[in-house]
Amino acid sequence: MLLEDKKAVVYGGAGSVGRAVARAFAREGASVFLAGRTRATLDEVAREIAGSGGTVETAQVDALDQRAVDEHADAVAAKAGGIDVSFNAIGHGDVHGAPLLEMSFEDFARPITTAMRSQFLTTRAAARHMTRQGSGVVMAITAATARLAIPEVGGTGVTFDAIESQCRQWACELGRHGVRVVWLQTTGLPEALADIDLFPGYGTGSGDGMTRAELIAWMRGSSQLDRLTSLAELGNAAAFMASDHASAMTATAANLTCGQVPAR
What we know:
This protein is α/β, with parallel strands linked by helices. It has helices at 16-27, 39-51, 66-80, 105-133, 156-174, 212-221, 231-242; strands at 7-11, 31-36, 55-60, 85-88, 136-143, 179-186, 198-199, 210-211, 252-256. It has one domain: NAD(P)-binding Rossmann-like Domain (Rossmann fold). The chain is 42% helix and 17% strand.
């Protein structure tokens, strides 16, 4: 197993991305510590993982609360003997569907400030333990929007770009301590789309917006594989990037964009 005897914290563990990553980590032998704001949904994911034979615990943690994040990381490290992997999958409160000319600064900036704060706090909390043990992997998730200019996505593209920049900064400071910092860059994830009937037009000229099927077709059409990333693929890549098989990789992404964003 790729992550046998590893201890992994997944922030936002009840969301679709966090759930997929947590399942993959547990399947590959890691003890998983799910953290999030809603205990009931975390427990639901934990029951699923435990039912498949995985080792899992949950904790109610607000990833924007510095004290809560630090105390949780300290408790996990004390109980488990360290932290080997930290994955941040929390939501950012993005607002889509309006041009910047019509958007409030608050709506534009919310995902940026949320992501920067949560990424900083969760990384710092885990890294303080990782640097003492001389090893560890910090992980984040971004999307093709970090590299593509798409209308009507508010602060989303800037947010993902900022996450990647912050990861590079952490990587250059933590590398000498044996800690790697990597992120997964994906396409849109159809399985994670909100269950709503109509989405923004995203500059396609569809003034009435797009249905779920139309949105998926539009995103798929921009990929070189003519398809989009699945949550299972995301989980598999996360497990690999967290493992010693990727030990030479830091300050970089696993490009899971199906060719939407060619490697540079």
